[in-house]
Amino acid sequence: MTTMESLIGLVNRIQQACTVLGDYGGGDNTFSSLWEALPSVAVVGGQSSGKSSVLESIVGRDFLPRGSGIVTRRPLVLQLHKTDEGSQEYAEFLHLPKRRFTDFGAVRNEIQEETDRITGKTKQISPVPIHLSIYSPNVVNLTLIDLPGLTKVAVEGQPETIVEDIETMVRSYVEKPNCIILAISPANQDIATSDAIKLAREVDPSGDRTFGVLTKLDLMDKGTNALDVLEGRSYRLQHPWVGIVNRSQADINKNVDMIVARRKEREYFATSPDYGHLASKMGSEYLARLLSQHLENVIRSRIPSITSLINKSIDELESEMDHLGRPIALDAGAQLYTVLEVCRAFERIFKEHLDGGRPGGDRIYGVFDNQLPAALKKLPFDRHLSLQNVRRVVSEADGYQPHLIAPEQGYRRLIEGALNYFRGPAEASVDAVHFVLKELVRKSIGETQELKRFPTLQADIAAAANEALERFRDESKKTVVRLVDMESSYLTVDFFRKLPQEVDNKGGNPQAPVTDRYGEGHFRRIGSNVSSYVGMVSDTLKNTIPKAVVFCQVKEAKQSLLARFYTQLGKKEGKQLSQMLDEDPALMERRQQCAKRLELYKAARDEIDSVSWTR
Ligand SMILES: Nc1nc2c(ncn2[C@@H]2O[C@H](COP(=O)(O)OP(=O)(O)OP(=O)(O)O)[C@@H](O)[C@H]2O)c(=O)[nH]1
């Protein structure tokens, strides 16, 4: 069977884990809060309403700081654990796990000091809770959260905004649907003006989760009583009101023992002419039992929804962690492995762009199929082989003595001059393909999911790939220029062997006067012969330039884009590798938060599982 202790203790343990991992009410969180899903009892009351007295009475000990001004400046999560009769009472703080406090005066000091540790001496308030566990035979199992008292004016050096700040913080607790509100109001004040009831009415209008507590019944004017409130006529709540008589200031000054005070309170109700009929349902001990029972019931009813929240959150966090990438190991071997994995992922994507599957590779074919032929077509051969130019080149080549039979030198010069023009389109093809490849590198880097988290490695890979592409471009340029140079270094003899016959076939007359040899027709013929030779070379280069470009650039990029990078990588030390895997700090932070959260939810799931086993 699930015991009361195991259920309330379960929530205690989960709450502690929440605080350790930074999930607490009022905290600024981007995650769904587990804390908020846990049922808790928050104690709310105006200044001097008797809040501290009620808590101390429930515990049966003096342990809360007292003083003027706002003393409670951080939420105090007070976890009460009932121990066996006769065992020693002690207290423990979550922030001092190894220290057992048996002196409750020291507990009071520690609360004060721990409050100042976060808020400084500025008297500011902070939402970070202090967790205090009290183990005692005189308590019931119960967890209460003591919040700063609602106040109307700031006093002695407290910031002006404190009134509003306190209300905001208290509200952030009590507005959560899983919060049980313990609203403390003094009986010697009109209930309609009670700060606690005002706030409770706002956040819980149906009064479903509000427990009304009326203190200072003994201080009411003679002849008046609080029966209208206690019997629910003044302000109706779903749960019955509980009347309390705490120690008076005089009792406190006299150090009246809490256990004695409890007894006095019992006697007060038992002998009261006004409240005698309600005696069994009044007093701080009854209040503690009532709350404990209620809290346990609420927790029991919420366990299934808490479990499903936990499971859902674990799933979400795990998928987010997958998306963010798992943390990188610290040893050099694992880091090298990670770098290589990421590089391979990049290379895979880059190859897909070239081979098909991803767009972009087709633009290389576009260079060969459109740009290169168009550029070849545009070369200014018309101008180069104009009658005027042919005449000039041939004459200049002949020197002082014109050629006798065929202008060999003239032909050579004209052809060489024409072939030189091919360098331009050849180099332009190399550049065009280079830019396509560069663009594909850029795209592939963007598309490599694994790289997203490593901006440094991203830059390193981009630099290495671009450096490699530059090398391939240089090599490719040398090769295509060489192709062009090869064409000029040895002309196709066959072509010229056929020429005289062609001239004859076209009706050349051997008997024609010699002067005709140097006439217009002669030079036009030379121009047209050179033009058809150049056309033949152009056709050849149209085929061989793409082959050279693919061989030197595309194939190399596919095979060894990162080859040099890999060689350098092998020489790197652990420190350099971890610099490469230097992640975006925002991402690291998010992963850390997710990991912490995941740890919390898993711990909570284990806690719940362990309770279910005892059922
Ligand atoms: N006679 C009598 N005095 C009470 C009762 N409850 C509280 N007091 C006195 O009222 C004063 C304020 O009580 P606290 O318990 O300190 O009230 P609080 O709401 O915690 O006050 P702050 O922490 O200052 O906001 C103290 O002097 C208490 O002795 C009560 O039921 N009867």
Automatic annotation (TrEMBL):
<dbReference type="Pfam" id="PF00350">
    <property type="entry name" value="Dynamin_N"/>
</dbReference>
<keyword id="KW-0547">Nucleotide-binding</keyword>
<keyword id="KW-0963">Cytoplasm</keyword>
<dbReference type="GO" id="GO:0051301">
    <property type="term" value="P:cell division"/>
</dbReference>
<dbReference type="GO" id="GO:0009524">
    <property type="term" value="C:phragmoplast"/>
</dbReference>
<keyword id="KW-0505">Motor protein</keyword>
<dbReference type="GO" id="GO:0003924">
    <property type="term" value="F:GTPase activity"/>
</dbReference>
<dbReference type="GO" id="GO:0005525">
    <property type="term" value="F:GTP binding"/>
</dbReference>
<dbReference type="InterPro" id="IPR045063">
    <property type="entry name" value="Dynamin_N"/>
</dbReference>
<dbReference type="GO" id="GO:0008017">
    <property type="term" value="F:microtubule binding"/>
</dbReference>
<keyword id="KW-0493">Microtubule</keyword>
<dbReference type="InterPro" id="IPR027417">
    <property type="entry name" value="P-loop_NTPase"/>
</dbReference>
<comment type="subunit">
    <text>Forms homodimer and may homooligomerize and heterooligomerize to form the phragmoplastin complex. Binds to PHIP1.</text>
</comment>
<dbReference type="InterPro" id="IPR003130">
    <property type="entry name" value="GED"/>
</dbReference>
<dbReference type="InterPro" id="IPR022812">
    <property type="entry name" value="Dynamin"/>
</dbReference>
<dbReference type="GO" id="GO:0016020">
    <property type="term" value="C:membrane"/>
</dbReference>
<feature type="domain" description="Dynamin-type G">
    <location>
        <begin position="35"/>
        <end position="304"/>
    </location>
</feature>
<keyword id="KW-0378">Hydrolase</keyword>
<feature type="domain" description="GED">
    <location>
        <begin position="523"/>
        <end position="615"/>
    </location>
</feature>
<dbReference type="InterPro" id="IPR019762">
    <property type="entry name" value="Dynamin_GTPase_CS"/>
</dbReference>
<dbReference type="GO" id="GO:0005874">
    <property type="term" value="C:microtubule"/>
</dbReference>
<protein>
    <recommendedName>
        <fullName>Dynamin-related protein 1E</fullName>
    </recommendedName>
</protein>
<keyword id="KW-0132">Cell division</keyword>
<dbReference type="InterPro" id="IPR000375">
    <property type="entry name" value="Dynamin_stalk"/>
</dbReference>
<keyword id="KW-0131">Cell cycle</keyword>
<dbReference type="Pfam" id="PF01031">
    <property type="entry name" value="Dynamin_M"/>
</dbReference>
<dbReference type="InterPro" id="IPR030381">
    <property type="entry name" value="G_DYNAMIN_dom"/>
</dbReference>
<dbReference type="Pfam" id="PF02212">
    <property type="entry name" value="GED"/>
</dbReference>
<comment type="similarity">
    <text>Belongs to the TRAFAC class dynamin-like GTPase superfamily. Dynamin/Fzo/YdjA family.</text>
</comment>
<keyword id="KW-0342">GTP-binding</keyword>
<dbReference type="InterPro" id="IPR001401">
    <property type="entry name" value="Dynamin_GTPase"/>
</dbReference>
<keyword id="KW-0206">Cytoskeleton</keyword>
<dbReference type="InterPro" id="IPR020850">
    <property type="entry name" value="GED_dom"/>
</dbReference>
